Amino acid sequence: MLSPDAATTVRTTLPAIGDAIEDISARFYDGMFADHPELLRELFNRGNQANGRQRSALAGSIAAFATALVRHPEERPDAMLARIAHKHVSVGVTTEQYEVVHKYLFAAIADVLGDAVTPDVVRAWDEVYWLMANALIALEAGLRRDSATGWLRATVVGRRRETADAASFTLRPEVPLTFKPGQYISVAVALPDGARQIRQYSLSSAPERDDCRITVKRVGGGETPDGEVSNWLHANVGPGDVLTVSPPFGDVTLPGGDTPLLLASAGIGATPILSMVEHLAATGSARQVTVVHADRSPADHAHREELIRLVDGLPGATLHRWYEEAVHCACRPAPNAGYVDLAEIELPDRLTAYLCGPLPYMRSVRSQLLARGVPASAVHYEVFGPDLWLGQD
To answer: Which of 17, 31, 66, 193 is deepest in the core (most CB within 10 A)?
Structure first.
Protein backbone atom coordinates (compact mmCIF):
# COMPACT_ATOMS: atom_id res chain seq x y z
CA MET A 1 0.00 0.00 0.00
CA LEU A 2 1.27 3.45 -0.86
CA SER A 3 1.94 5.94 1.91
CA PRO A 4 -0.70 8.72 2.08
CA ASP A 5 1.65 11.40 0.71
CA ALA A 6 2.85 9.15 -2.11
CA ALA A 7 -0.72 8.18 -3.00
CA THR A 8 -1.67 11.85 -3.34
CA THR A 9 1.36 12.59 -5.53
CA VAL A 10 0.83 9.53 -7.73
CA ARG A 11 -2.84 10.35 -8.16
CA THR A 12 -1.93 13.91 -9.20
CA THR A 13 0.89 12.96 -11.57
CA LEU A 14 -0.59 9.77 -13.03
CA PRO A 15 -2.16 11.56 -16.04
CA ALA A 16 1.17 13.17 -16.98
CA ILE A 17 3.14 9.97 -16.43
CA GLY A 18 0.48 8.01 -18.32
CA ASP A 19 0.61 10.37 -21.29
CA ALA A 20 4.40 10.10 -21.45
CA ILE A 21 4.82 6.45 -20.49
CA GLU A 22 5.46 5.24 -24.05
CA ASP A 23 8.27 7.80 -24.46
CA ILE A 24 9.59 6.91 -21.02
CA SER A 25 9.69 3.19 -21.80
CA ALA A 26 11.44 3.85 -25.12
CA ARG A 27 14.12 6.00 -23.43
CA PHE A 28 14.45 3.39 -20.68
CA TYR A 29 15.17 0.52 -23.06
CA ASP A 30 17.49 2.61 -25.24
CA GLY A 31 19.56 3.67 -22.25
CA MET A 32 19.68 0.25 -20.62
CA PHE A 33 20.63 -1.59 -23.81
CA ALA A 34 23.31 0.99 -24.65
CA ASP A 35 25.06 0.18 -21.37
CA HIS A 36 24.04 -3.49 -21.13
CA PRO A 37 23.84 -4.89 -24.70
CA GLU A 38 24.07 -8.42 -23.27
CA LEU A 39 20.52 -8.05 -21.94
CA LEU A 40 19.17 -7.58 -25.46
CA ARG A 41 21.28 -10.40 -26.87
CA GLU A 42 20.63 -12.95 -24.13
CA LEU A 43 17.43 -12.07 -22.23
CA PHE A 44 15.02 -9.75 -24.03
CA ASN A 45 13.14 -10.69 -27.17
CA ARG A 46 14.82 -8.75 -29.99
CA GLY A 47 11.76 -9.09 -32.20
CA ASN A 48 9.44 -7.53 -29.63
CA GLN A 49 11.95 -4.75 -29.06
CA ALA A 50 12.11 -4.04 -32.78
CA ASN A 51 8.34 -3.93 -33.26
CA GLY A 52 7.69 -1.96 -30.05
CA ARG A 53 5.46 -4.53 -28.36
CA GLN A 54 7.68 -4.97 -25.32
CA ARG A 55 7.84 -1.22 -24.78
CA SER A 56 4.06 -0.94 -24.96
CA ALA A 57 3.68 -3.86 -22.54
CA LEU A 58 6.04 -2.26 -20.01
CA ALA A 59 4.15 1.01 -20.26
CA GLY A 60 0.83 -0.76 -19.81
CA SER A 61 1.95 -2.75 -16.78
CA ILE A 62 3.37 0.26 -14.94
CA ALA A 63 0.30 2.37 -15.66
CA ALA A 64 -2.05 -0.46 -14.67
CA PHE A 65 -0.22 -1.12 -11.41
CA ALA A 66 -0.11 2.55 -10.40
CA THR A 67 -3.77 3.00 -11.30
CA ALA A 68 -4.72 -0.01 -9.19
CA LEU A 69 -2.78 1.35 -6.20
CA VAL A 70 -4.62 4.66 -6.17
CA ARG A 71 -8.07 3.35 -7.11
CA HIS A 72 -8.10 0.29 -4.89
CA PRO A 73 -5.44 0.84 -2.21
CA GLU A 74 -6.70 -2.09 -0.16
CA GLU A 75 -6.10 -4.55 -3.00
CA ARG A 76 -3.07 -5.77 -4.92
CA PRO A 77 -3.40 -6.68 -8.62
CA ASP A 78 -2.19 -10.23 -8.04
CA ALA A 79 -3.46 -11.62 -11.35
CA MET A 80 -1.35 -9.13 -13.30
CA LEU A 81 1.67 -9.70 -11.07
CA ALA A 82 1.42 -13.49 -11.33
CA ARG A 83 1.36 -13.33 -15.14
CA ILE A 84 4.49 -11.16 -15.20
CA ALA A 85 6.27 -13.30 -12.58
CA HIS A 86 5.74 -16.50 -14.56
CA LYS A 87 7.16 -14.86 -17.69
CA HIS A 88 10.16 -13.49 -15.79
CA VAL A 89 11.10 -16.80 -14.19
CA SER A 90 10.67 -18.67 -17.46
CA VAL A 91 13.40 -16.57 -19.11
CA GLY A 92 15.70 -16.28 -16.09
CA VAL A 93 15.17 -12.74 -14.78
CA THR A 94 17.19 -12.25 -11.58
CA THR A 95 16.56 -10.19 -8.46
CA GLU A 96 19.63 -8.06 -9.17
CA GLN A 97 18.21 -6.96 -12.51
CA TYR A 98 15.43 -5.03 -10.75
CA GLU A 99 18.10 -2.58 -9.55
CA VAL A 100 19.31 -2.18 -13.13
CA VAL A 101 15.78 -1.54 -14.36
CA HIS A 102 15.19 1.00 -11.57
CA LYS A 103 18.29 2.98 -12.52
CA TYR A 104 17.42 3.35 -16.19
CA LEU A 105 13.67 3.73 -15.71
CA PHE A 106 14.02 6.68 -13.37
CA ALA A 107 16.66 8.25 -15.58
CA ALA A 108 14.18 8.00 -18.45
CA ILE A 109 11.40 9.58 -16.36
CA ALA A 110 13.63 12.52 -15.50
CA ASP A 111 14.78 12.84 -19.10
CA VAL A 112 11.25 12.89 -20.55
CA LEU A 113 9.46 14.99 -17.91
CA GLY A 114 12.32 17.34 -16.99
CA ASP A 115 11.57 19.90 -14.27
CA ALA A 116 8.22 18.30 -13.49
CA VAL A 117 10.10 15.50 -11.75
CA THR A 118 10.46 17.02 -8.28
CA PRO A 119 11.93 15.15 -5.30
CA ASP A 120 8.37 14.43 -4.09
CA VAL A 121 7.47 12.93 -7.48
CA VAL A 122 10.61 10.78 -7.44
CA ARG A 123 9.86 9.51 -3.93
CA ALA A 124 6.24 8.71 -4.77
CA TRP A 125 7.00 6.82 -7.96
CA ASP A 126 9.93 5.11 -6.26
CA GLU A 127 7.34 3.66 -3.86
CA VAL A 128 5.25 2.47 -6.80
CA TYR A 129 8.23 0.83 -8.45
CA TRP A 130 9.46 -1.02 -5.37
CA LEU A 131 5.99 -2.13 -4.34
CA MET A 132 5.66 -3.74 -7.76
CA ALA A 133 9.26 -4.99 -7.90
CA ASN A 134 9.29 -6.50 -4.41
CA ALA A 135 5.96 -8.22 -5.02
CA LEU A 136 7.37 -9.72 -8.23
CA ILE A 137 10.65 -10.69 -6.55
CA ALA A 138 8.73 -12.60 -3.86
CA LEU A 139 6.47 -14.32 -6.39
CA GLU A 140 9.40 -15.25 -8.59
CA ALA A 141 11.37 -16.67 -5.66
CA GLY A 142 8.42 -18.91 -4.86
CA LEU A 143 8.14 -20.07 -8.45
CA ARG A 144 11.83 -20.89 -8.58
CA ARG A 145 11.55 -22.94 -5.39
CA ASP A 146 8.54 -24.83 -6.74
CA SER A 147 10.16 -25.58 -10.09
CA ALA A 148 13.20 -27.05 -8.28
CA THR A 149 15.39 -27.02 -11.39
CA GLY A 150 16.88 -24.68 -13.96
CA TRP A 151 17.43 -25.09 -17.69
CA LEU A 152 17.08 -28.63 -19.01
CA ARG A 153 18.28 -30.56 -22.03
CA ALA A 154 15.41 -32.01 -24.05
CA THR A 155 15.89 -34.44 -26.92
CA VAL A 156 13.61 -34.05 -29.92
CA VAL A 157 12.05 -37.47 -30.50
CA GLY A 158 9.55 -36.44 -33.16
CA ARG A 159 8.73 -33.68 -35.59
CA ARG A 160 5.50 -33.34 -37.56
CA ARG A 161 4.29 -30.77 -40.05
CA GLU A 162 0.89 -29.53 -38.84
CA THR A 163 0.27 -26.80 -41.44
CA ALA A 164 2.35 -24.98 -44.03
CA ASP A 165 3.68 -22.69 -41.27
CA ALA A 166 3.37 -24.80 -38.11
CA ALA A 167 5.37 -27.80 -36.94
CA SER A 168 5.12 -29.79 -33.73
CA PHE A 169 8.19 -31.04 -31.86
CA THR A 170 7.86 -33.93 -29.42
CA LEU A 171 10.42 -33.65 -26.65
CA ARG A 172 11.87 -35.95 -24.03
CA PRO A 173 13.53 -33.79 -21.34
CA GLU A 174 16.32 -35.22 -19.21
CA VAL A 175 14.01 -34.72 -16.20
CA PRO A 176 10.30 -35.51 -16.76
CA LEU A 177 8.20 -32.35 -16.79
CA THR A 178 5.29 -31.99 -14.39
CA PHE A 179 2.92 -29.37 -15.70
CA LYS A 180 -0.67 -28.19 -15.75
CA PRO A 181 -2.71 -28.00 -18.96
CA GLY A 182 -2.26 -24.49 -20.34
CA GLN A 183 1.34 -23.94 -19.24
CA TYR A 184 4.33 -23.17 -21.46
CA ILE A 185 8.06 -23.77 -21.53
CA SER A 186 10.84 -21.48 -22.69
CA VAL A 187 13.22 -22.57 -25.43
CA ALA A 188 16.67 -20.96 -25.55
CA VAL A 189 18.61 -21.12 -28.82
CA ALA A 190 21.98 -19.85 -29.98
CA LEU A 191 21.50 -17.94 -33.24
CA PRO A 192 24.07 -17.58 -36.05
CA ASP A 193 25.14 -14.09 -34.87
CA GLY A 194 26.01 -15.48 -31.43
CA ALA A 195 22.97 -14.12 -29.63
CA ARG A 196 21.06 -16.33 -27.20
CA GLN A 197 17.34 -15.76 -27.65
CA ILE A 198 14.50 -17.19 -25.57
CA ARG A 199 10.89 -17.80 -26.59
CA GLN A 200 7.93 -19.33 -24.80
CA TYR A 201 5.86 -22.08 -26.42
CA SER A 202 2.72 -23.58 -24.94
CA LEU A 203 2.76 -27.29 -24.32
CA SER A 204 0.31 -28.72 -26.83
CA SER A 205 0.07 -32.15 -25.19
CA ALA A 206 -1.51 -33.39 -21.98
CA PRO A 207 0.59 -33.90 -18.82
CA GLU A 208 -0.45 -37.56 -18.72
CA ARG A 209 1.90 -38.43 -21.60
CA ASP A 210 5.44 -39.76 -21.12
CA ASP A 211 6.80 -37.07 -23.42
CA CYS A 212 5.75 -33.49 -24.09
CA ARG A 213 5.16 -31.44 -27.22
CA ILE A 214 5.35 -27.87 -28.43
CA THR A 215 3.89 -26.54 -31.67
CA VAL A 216 5.76 -23.68 -33.32
CA LYS A 217 4.31 -21.37 -35.95
CA ARG A 218 6.90 -19.84 -38.26
CA VAL A 219 6.59 -16.05 -37.96
CA GLY A 220 8.06 -13.38 -40.21
CA GLY A 221 11.48 -14.35 -41.44
CA GLY A 222 14.07 -12.86 -43.72
CA GLU A 223 16.27 -10.26 -42.07
CA THR A 224 13.76 -9.01 -39.52
CA PRO A 225 14.27 -9.93 -35.85
CA ASP A 226 10.60 -10.86 -35.49
CA GLY A 227 10.26 -14.62 -35.80
CA GLU A 228 13.98 -15.37 -35.75
CA VAL A 229 13.65 -18.22 -33.21
CA SER A 230 10.62 -19.84 -34.82
CA ASN A 231 12.32 -19.73 -38.21
CA TRP A 232 15.51 -21.18 -36.73
CA LEU A 233 13.61 -24.06 -35.14
CA HIS A 234 11.80 -24.83 -38.41
CA ALA A 235 15.03 -24.75 -40.40
CA ASN A 236 17.36 -26.58 -38.02
CA VAL A 237 15.63 -28.89 -35.57
CA GLY A 238 14.57 -32.49 -36.07
CA PRO A 239 14.61 -35.88 -34.31
CA GLY A 240 17.80 -36.47 -32.38
CA ASP A 241 18.58 -32.80 -31.82
CA VAL A 242 18.75 -31.43 -28.29
CA LEU A 243 17.06 -28.21 -27.16
CA THR A 244 17.58 -26.17 -24.01
CA VAL A 245 14.23 -25.69 -22.26
CA SER A 246 12.92 -24.30 -19.00
CA PRO A 247 10.57 -25.99 -16.54
CA PRO A 248 6.88 -25.28 -17.23
CA PHE A 249 5.40 -21.96 -16.15
CA GLY A 250 2.17 -20.06 -16.72
CA ASP A 251 -0.77 -19.05 -14.53
CA VAL A 252 -3.61 -19.66 -17.02
CA THR A 253 -4.27 -23.32 -16.29
CA LEU A 254 -7.24 -25.64 -16.32
CA PRO A 255 -8.83 -26.06 -12.87
CA GLY A 256 -10.25 -29.25 -11.47
CA GLY A 257 -13.87 -29.74 -10.50
CA ASP A 258 -17.01 -30.03 -12.58
CA THR A 259 -17.58 -26.41 -13.63
CA PRO A 260 -18.70 -26.12 -17.28
CA LEU A 261 -15.97 -24.85 -19.57
CA LEU A 262 -15.67 -22.74 -22.71
CA LEU A 263 -12.29 -23.28 -24.39
CA ALA A 264 -11.90 -20.74 -27.21
CA SER A 265 -8.86 -20.38 -29.46
CA ALA A 266 -7.79 -18.86 -32.75
CA GLY A 267 -4.77 -19.64 -34.92
CA ILE A 268 -1.78 -21.01 -33.04
CA GLY A 269 -3.64 -20.16 -29.83
CA ALA A 270 -5.04 -23.67 -30.25
CA THR A 271 -1.98 -25.12 -28.50
CA PRO A 272 -2.78 -24.57 -24.79
CA ILE A 273 -6.44 -25.35 -25.47
CA LEU A 274 -5.40 -28.63 -27.09
CA SER A 275 -3.47 -29.55 -23.95
CA MET A 276 -6.58 -28.88 -21.88
CA VAL A 277 -8.83 -30.95 -24.14
CA GLU A 278 -6.37 -33.85 -24.25
CA HIS A 279 -6.11 -33.76 -20.45
CA LEU A 280 -9.90 -33.90 -20.12
CA ALA A 281 -9.99 -36.86 -22.50
CA ALA A 282 -7.10 -38.65 -20.75
CA THR A 283 -8.80 -38.34 -17.37
CA GLY A 284 -12.21 -39.46 -18.64
CA SER A 285 -13.85 -36.16 -17.75
CA ALA A 286 -17.62 -35.84 -18.02
CA ARG A 287 -17.58 -32.04 -17.69
CA GLN A 288 -19.70 -29.96 -20.02
CA VAL A 289 -17.16 -28.46 -22.41
CA THR A 290 -17.75 -26.09 -25.32
CA VAL A 291 -14.72 -25.91 -27.62
CA VAL A 292 -14.53 -22.99 -30.07
CA HIS A 293 -11.81 -22.42 -32.66
CA ALA A 294 -11.33 -19.81 -35.37
CA ASP A 295 -8.81 -19.83 -38.20
CA ARG A 296 -8.18 -18.55 -41.69
CA SER A 297 -9.05 -21.89 -43.32
CA PRO A 298 -9.16 -25.62 -42.47
CA ALA A 299 -5.66 -25.98 -43.93
CA ASP A 300 -4.35 -23.33 -41.51
CA HIS A 301 -5.87 -25.02 -38.45
CA ALA A 302 -3.00 -26.76 -36.65
CA HIS A 303 -3.96 -30.10 -35.03
CA ARG A 304 -7.42 -29.90 -36.62
CA GLU A 305 -8.04 -33.64 -36.89
CA GLU A 306 -6.56 -34.26 -33.46
CA LEU A 307 -8.90 -31.73 -31.88
CA ILE A 308 -11.93 -33.25 -33.60
CA ARG A 309 -10.96 -36.72 -32.42
CA LEU A 310 -10.41 -35.61 -28.83
CA VAL A 311 -13.71 -33.73 -28.63
CA ASP A 312 -15.52 -36.73 -30.13
CA GLY A 313 -14.15 -38.81 -27.26
CA LEU A 314 -15.53 -36.50 -24.57
CA PRO A 315 -19.17 -37.27 -23.75
CA GLY A 316 -19.92 -33.73 -22.54
CA ALA A 317 -18.04 -31.80 -25.22
CA THR A 318 -19.12 -29.98 -28.37
CA LEU A 319 -16.93 -28.41 -31.04
CA HIS A 320 -17.70 -25.22 -33.02
CA ARG A 321 -15.33 -23.93 -35.71
CA TRP A 322 -15.24 -20.81 -37.86
CA TYR A 323 -13.03 -20.28 -40.91
CA GLU A 324 -12.64 -16.89 -42.58
CA GLU A 325 -12.07 -18.23 -46.08
CA ALA A 326 -14.45 -20.38 -48.12
CA VAL A 327 -14.89 -23.71 -46.35
CA HIS A 328 -14.12 -26.88 -48.30
CA CYS A 329 -14.07 -29.42 -45.51
CA ALA A 330 -16.00 -32.68 -45.40
CA CYS A 331 -15.28 -33.18 -41.69
CA ARG A 332 -17.95 -33.21 -39.03
CA PRO A 333 -19.24 -31.23 -37.33
CA ALA A 334 -19.49 -28.88 -40.28
CA PRO A 335 -17.56 -25.64 -39.72
CA ASN A 336 -19.00 -22.14 -39.97
CA ALA A 337 -17.85 -19.43 -42.37
CA GLY A 338 -16.69 -16.03 -41.16
CA TYR A 339 -15.90 -14.94 -37.63
CA VAL A 340 -16.84 -16.42 -34.27
CA ASP A 341 -20.41 -15.68 -33.23
CA LEU A 342 -21.53 -17.16 -29.94
CA ALA A 343 -25.14 -16.00 -30.30
CA GLU A 344 -26.49 -19.40 -31.33
CA ILE A 345 -24.36 -21.45 -28.93
CA GLU A 346 -25.94 -22.57 -25.69
CA LEU A 347 -23.85 -21.46 -22.72
CA PRO A 348 -24.46 -23.25 -19.42
CA ASP A 349 -24.63 -21.51 -16.07
CA ARG A 350 -21.47 -21.17 -13.93
CA LEU A 351 -19.34 -21.13 -17.07
CA THR A 352 -15.58 -20.61 -16.85
CA ALA A 353 -13.92 -19.50 -20.08
CA TYR A 354 -10.32 -19.81 -21.29
CA LEU A 355 -9.24 -17.81 -24.35
CA CYS A 356 -6.07 -17.88 -26.42
CA GLY A 357 -5.41 -16.19 -29.74
CA PRO A 358 -4.82 -12.74 -31.23
CA LEU A 359 -5.96 -9.87 -29.03
CA PRO A 360 -8.80 -8.71 -31.36
CA TYR A 361 -10.21 -12.24 -31.31
CA MET A 362 -10.04 -12.53 -27.54
CA ARG A 363 -11.58 -9.08 -27.04
CA SER A 364 -14.44 -10.06 -29.33
CA VAL A 365 -15.11 -13.37 -27.58
CA ARG A 366 -14.83 -11.77 -24.15
CA SER A 367 -17.29 -9.03 -25.11
CA GLN A 368 -19.75 -11.62 -26.38
CA LEU A 369 -19.43 -13.60 -23.16
CA LEU A 370 -19.95 -10.53 -20.98
CA ALA A 371 -23.01 -9.61 -23.05
CA ARG A 372 -24.36 -13.10 -22.36
CA GLY A 373 -24.01 -12.58 -18.62
CA VAL A 374 -20.73 -14.41 -17.99
CA PRO A 375 -18.89 -12.58 -15.15
CA ALA A 376 -15.61 -10.92 -16.10
CA SER A 377 -13.92 -12.86 -13.29
CA ALA A 378 -14.83 -16.11 -15.07
CA VAL A 379 -13.03 -15.18 -18.32
CA HIS A 380 -9.30 -16.00 -18.41
CA TYR A 381 -6.89 -15.42 -21.27
CA GLU A 382 -3.37 -16.30 -22.40
CA VAL A 383 -1.38 -13.90 -24.56
CA PHE A 384 1.52 -15.04 -26.73
CA GLY A 385 4.22 -12.42 -26.32
CA PRO A 386 3.99 -9.18 -24.33
CA ASP A 387 0.60 -8.67 -22.69
CA LEU A 388 -0.77 -5.61 -24.46
CA TRP A 389 -4.15 -6.08 -22.76
CA LEU A 390 -2.80 -4.80 -19.43
CA GLY A 391 -4.34 -1.52 -18.43
CA GLN A 392 -6.98 -1.59 -21.17
CA ASP A 393 -9.88 -2.99 -19.11
So the answer is: 66
